[in-house]
Each structure stands twice: as structure tokens, then as C-alpha cells.
Batch of 2 targets.
Target 1
Amino acid sequence: MAGSTPKILVTNDDGVYSPGLRLLYEAVKDIGKAYVLAPETPKSASGLGITLHKPLRITRVRLWSDVDVYMTNGTPSDVIYLAIEEFSPHLDIVVSGVNIGDNTSIQVILSSGTIGAAAQAALLGIPGLAFSANVDEASQLEEDRETWENIKKIIRRIVLWVLDNGIPEGADIISVNFPRRVTRETRVKIAPAARIKFLQKVSVLYDPRGRKYYWLYGTLVEPEPGSDVYVVHVENAIAVTPLSLNMNPPRSSWSTMVEKLKPMVSLVEAELAGASKS
Amino acid sequence: MAGSTPKILVTNDDGVYSPGLRLLYEAVKDIGKAYVLAPETPKSASGLGITLHKPLRITRVRLWSDVDVYMTNGTPSDVIYLAIEEFSPHLDIVVSGVNIGDNTSIQVILSSGTIGAAAQAALLGIPGLAFSANVDEASQLEEDRETWENIKKIIRRIVLWVLDNGIPEGADIISVNFPRRVTRETRVKIAPAARIKFLQKVSVLYDPRGRKYYWLYGTLVEPEPGSDVYVVHVENAIAVTPLSLNMNPPRSSWSTMVEKLKPMVSLVEAELAGASKS
């Protein structure tokens, strides 16, 4: 860090027109050189999807007076690779958000494009931070100036800290979820992710021609105390959640896992050994 | 299990027309009642994306003589919720695949629709299995009858075992990756997922009108011995990989993680406390 200007990629999954992207840019613009590249349309629930089957474009849009904003037809994860190609092979940090809607619980995290962008960065060894707010609409964020300014200060502080200290060992990314309002009384809690947040439901409907269709939606489950969902939705506090991308069972339980699966492997090998030679 | 007919959901992310789906169905059709519902078009790299912003349809297609095949405009994750609504609220197991292309390494797993479907099932408490094959094209699978028949037998054996024993504690899903060819000599190895598999690259190209565009592609990295990538690509063996969806740092290191993040939290709280009341 010392003596150099950090290169910061600012992105999101709600698209370039989201006020959350503007808020995130404002929070980090004085820290270093900030590049803004985001999807042209909302890519919510795109997860870590990468676009391999079609050409991607990057277009400059005249959106804000103080910085060039770039948009792409790709996903948040595509953005990381495009930014490395287009702006710099040496990004110091990737910040993603501020998402309209919190990204709490594993269920939501695994499908979140906001977190996906931070995760892709982490896979490339670039510190990744994801920021999300428990608001239903962008206007709620824009109209509440106190919350807007407080979120901005908090993001700035966290980015500076991570640029100095890195992501703590044992985690790959840090996800920060803000409650509906952030005031000087708002508390900050380090909280693990709950497993699920929504009971996903299916609404069965009929179109004007009488044909059946389906619409998915979720209803909140009772959150486990101490979890990210609880901190944000019940305590109205800020949840700081370190996340690991390592989906392997913990090293300490690996040999137990192998023992449990061995009988299955033996059955499969026996099946194969009995297979006829062709 | 005893005395009841297991309800099996068969899905994939390559779409209903993939021979891999047919292979998977053939492998499990005699085990119980198999429902086949899959995306109408390939949804590769869709991860755990859920479609909340548009209506979903389910259409029956006359594709195979021995079973009704249903297709949807949704993602593999949507399929789980649609199947519960449409077929049965009590699915005993969800099998996803056989994907054209292996799903090895965390990098690929996190964006895989094949694994996404199994993961969504697991979040709902339904055992989820993902099957993938290291082939470039579906025809390679269809034309190699020995491999086809062996994969079928192996899947059948694994599904029967999981119906009897469940997914081992500490894992949420099991992902199985087959090498290019599966013969009676092929070995089966329990292998953890590597972190990355591809160095993602960006090709910069120009269209006939001279406008720049980008195409993402990946080149294989040298795989770590013992990892799923190594087992499938170097040893040409079958990799059985138990995966956990818990992205929280291991419980044993949580307090250390909290200690590391506390200084950051203190800085943020100090920043907030100094904020002006509005």
C-alpha cells in the first residue's frame, strides 16, 4: 500500500443505474483510483455465472460527472475478468454493491451476483468485499440521507482497513449487510451466515389465455439468533460476515468423511469389475 | 426406504435435449418413481440462480417413449421448487446431470447449474447428487457405449447407496465426476475439490463493423495432486467429492476470526459514533 495508489474496482449486480453503485463509488473514490464497471441491466441471482457462450461488450455511459462509468452485457463475475483486461491486471481490491436487498444466509449468498463478483475476485487472489442493504427499493436508500452518509463512511473505513490488513486468513471475502436505517446508534456485529432465510414458494397462476404459469417468491423463516439474518432483520444492526469459498468438508473431518464413503466406493468398484469388457 | 417407492427428481443444466439427462434417467428409472424436469435450453454456469422476476412455464415434451419429460424456462435451481409444486412435496432424492463437461474445482462448482440443482435440494433437506463427465461434446458420451453403460451402472449404485445411507454428516451434496472413458479398469477416488481449474482469459476481438468485443475462455492450470481435477484429468479416474454448503469459517476458527475482525469493527463503530445526528 505505502506510496502507491490502490486500484479499486467498483461493481454490482443491480446494474449501472442503481443508486447503490453510486453510493459505493462515492465511498471509495478518494481512497485510490476507482474503476466503475457493472452490468447494464440487473443481474440479481446470477451467482458466480460466467458468460462463455456469447460475445461481451463494454460501453461507456455518461452517467456521473466525476468518473467514467462502464457497463457490460455480462454478469458480475464476467466484470472481474473484463476489468482486468480493460483497466489493469493489478487490481488491489474489488468492492461490489451496494445491493438493493440484503444478502444474508447461505441460501441467498450462493445465488447472489453481488457476492459472486467478490468471490470471483477472491479466486484470483484479489481481496473482495460485498455490501448490501436491507431495503426494498433503491429510493429508500436515496431518500434517507443520514443512512446514505453513514453507509458511505462505513464502507470507506472497511475498505481502508482491508487494504492495510487484507482479508483475515480462513476467510476469502467479507460480506457486509446494512439494516434498513443506519444511524449513529446502529451497532456492528460479526455474524456467521444462517443456512436459509426464505421458504421458497411457488405461486400458480393463469394467463389471459388460461394457460398455467408459475411465479417463485420467498417468505422469511424465523432467523437463528446470532446469525446474519437475525442481526440485520431483528436487531437492525450491521452484520459483518467473513465467508470461505472452501466447500470441502473441514480438514479435521476429512478422514472420517473418507471412511464413511469407502463402502460406497467399494460397491462401485465391484460393479465396475463385474462389467463386461467391450 | 423400506416398503416405499422412492421419488427421484432427474434434472440437469444442459437442457432436456442433452443425452446426459437421458443417461441419468436410464440409470435411476428402475429404482423408483423418476420425474424428469429440466431447463428447455442450456443453463450452463447458472449456479444457484433463482428466477424471481418473470413467470415460469412447464411444458411436456414427447421426447422419450418410456417417460414424460417436462421442460421449463427456469434455471436448474428453479426446477427443484417447480418439481415440489408439480410432482410431489416429498422427493426422496434429486439427481442432476450427467453434465457435458466435468464440474471439478471450487471455481467451477460455484458457478455450476448442475451442482446448483443438487445444492438447492440440499438446502431443502433433500439429498442431492451431481454427476458430470469430462467430455467436450454429448456425442462423445453417446458413441462410447462401454462408458455409457458403465456410468449408468455406477450412478445406479451410488443413488441406491445414498437412498439407504443418506449424505454423510459434514457434507451436503456429493458430486461425482467421470473421466473421458469409463472402463472396468477405471478407479474410483474420494477427492477434495481443487480451488481453481482455469486461468480465465479474455479474448479481444472486432466485429465486422470494427467494434470491439470480448470473449471469455479458460485454460487449464496445473492441477494439485489428489484434487478432483487431478483425479479426473490426470489419473483418468472417477472423482467422488463430498461438498459442504457451509461457507462460514470452520467453527474451530470462528473465535480467532472474530478477534481478527474486532479492530475493524471498533474503527467502524468509532466512525459512526462521531457521525452527526440528523
Target 2
Amino acid sequence: MHSSVSIPGYDYGTARVRRSPVTLDELRQIEQAAGFSEEDQHALQCAGEVLVEQAEQMVDSWRARIAAQPELARWFFDPSGKPDEAYKAAVKKRFVQWVRDTCMRPRDQAWLDYQEEIGLRHTPAKKNQTDSVHTPPVVPLRYLIAFVAVVNPIRPFLCREKRSAEEIEEMQNAWSKAVLIQISLWSRPYVKEGLW
Amino acid sequence: MHSSVSIPGYDYGTARVRRSPVTLDELRQIEQAAGFSEEDQHALQCAGEVLVEQAEQMVDSWRARIAAQPELARWFFDPSGKPDEAYKAAVKKRFVQWVRDTCMRPRDQAWLDYQEEIGLRHTPAKKNQTDSVHTPPVVPLRYLIAFVAVVNPIRPFLCREKRSAEEIEEMQNAWSKAVLIQISLWSRPYVKEGLW
């Protein structure tokens, strides 16, 4: 994971990430609402043992889906209406790292702070800023939520032949919860005062 | 499904539901972002054949999770700080119907309009209004999103002994997508102008 320090704009755990307005107690409540347990944390780490190596393939498969739908692809377009390839490449490295972090990082203050940062980077507050680009200023929340359905099914990546159906189900459920907890946190800067 | 006309406040397809500000074209884009296909629609209807009869048990299992977490339970409390049992009972009937509708209803204008209505009923715009109650004015979006992880796994209800693992997986994936598409739509009234 330490190779991640060389990813431009990957500011996890650095002073460039501001403290999240969400407290750790609030995070625990969100985790509890999602039913995220110690067992899920363990299952996620087990899943990570195989997912970390496949993280780029996973992201490539998701990216192919984005590229195939103009309404999703256009949030990566430059002002001329073409894909900003440098931006896509920069985001991709952090997206791959996100798979690793989702499985392997402890859910502490640094993790919570970076969730807020990721959320902000999808909104006008910070989108484009990290990479000094000029793509549209937001990824609409409706797509962020709907796209969970694409990022959710990880069974094809879990080397099913080596695990029991029960283990696979535990890993799948843990991953689903972990993604939803993050989308919940990322939605914060999108939401009207008092409704988040 | 026609017994549903007797559920108080269940205004699906009636003049009491305003037209959604979301267009059918926008709905199709959200469905596409979630990867929702004709095959998913079919798998959902097949799932519905067994889920419709178990809808109340499903809701009871989810409700037990809500009741067990004070931070989720309190959105059903009356001003004295106790659960508003009449409100809970009224919402429950509609929640059970929601399981049926998720599997069986076509995704047309009436369906889209009612998604907006459900979203509004979780926000200050319409929460409490339908049932003339005095519970807190909002269910925070962070819990609505996180709780998808609880509503998501339907395998235990799918009579697994009667179906192939592949059929079960198709139904599970179709259900997951259908839920996320709805949460995406329900999030609309929560979100700041231009960010949804």
C-alpha cells in the first residue's frame, strides 16, 4: 500500500485534507445502520487479499461502463466536449487505490477525513481542483448512487473456486456495506442544511 | 396488488401525487447507470413471485433492525420521545406494499411520480403530513443510503432450494439495482440545486 504515496492528488492522511465535519461517533452510527460489524471488517480484509491485485481490472471494468454511457462519460469531458484523458488517467490511479483502501484501511479519523475529501471532489467545491482541469463541476448525486449497483457485485473477482459459497457471500456483503457507508459519507456536501 | 387501495396514505397512481420533476428520460439514464436491463426486470418479477408473500416478514426483519438502533428508531418518535405506534403501523403497511411494487410495478410515469412522493415523505416537505403525526421532520439521507445494506440481501427470502445459484444471483442483483435506483430518486429533494 505504501506505493500509494506516489499517486498525484492522493492526499490520504496528509495535511492537505481538512478534518471531516462528520464525527467518528456519527460514522459509527452510519456503520451500524448499514449493519457493518467486526466480521465484515475481517471479511473485507480477506477479500482484499485477492481484490488488491485485481483492483486495476475492477476499475477498468467499471470505467468501461462509464465510457459506454454518454450521460456518465461526460463528467470527464474537457470544454471541447472530448474526454480529458489526462484527468481520466489521474483519477483512475486514485480509483484503483480506493479499492485497496476500501478493503484494507482502518476506519479511523484519517479515513473519515478522506471520505469527506472524496465527496467534495465530486462537487463544485473541489471537482477539477486537484488535477487543475476544466471538466463539468459536479458528478450528479443520482449517478453516484445508481452506480453503486455496478461497483457492488465483486463475486467475479473473488476467486470463487478457492472459497466456500458462505465465505464468498460474507465478502460480498461486507463489500456492499463498505461501499454504501462511503456513498453515505460522500453525499454530505451535496445535501441541504439539516437533511444529511 | 389491488388490495393496496385500502392502505391509508398509499396514493400510488392517484391525483394526490404530484408529477415528478424528474423526466422518464432521466429515469432511463439512472436505470442505465445502475445497469438495469430487461433481464433484471424479468428476474425481479420472478423474485416477486416469492417475495410478495413474504413482504411482511421482510419488513419485520428490517424494522427489527431499526428498532434496535436508537439513532434509527428516533425518526419514528412522537414529541414525548416514545415510538409513535400508530405512525409506525401506518408506514409499515406502505413499506410492505413497497416490496411488492418494487418487484411488480412497471417503471412508468405513475411509478416515477410515486418515487418522488416517497422521497418527499422522508423530508420536511412531506414527512408527518400523510399521517398527521408529529415525529421528527426528516429521515437523514445518510441513514437512507446506509440502510440499503440492510434491505439489500434478499437471498434468505428467495427459497433457495428451488432455484439454481445463477437464478438466485440474477434476482439478487436485480433487486439491488431496483433499490438503488429508487434511493437515487428519493435523494432528489434532499440535494442542493444543480447537484442532483
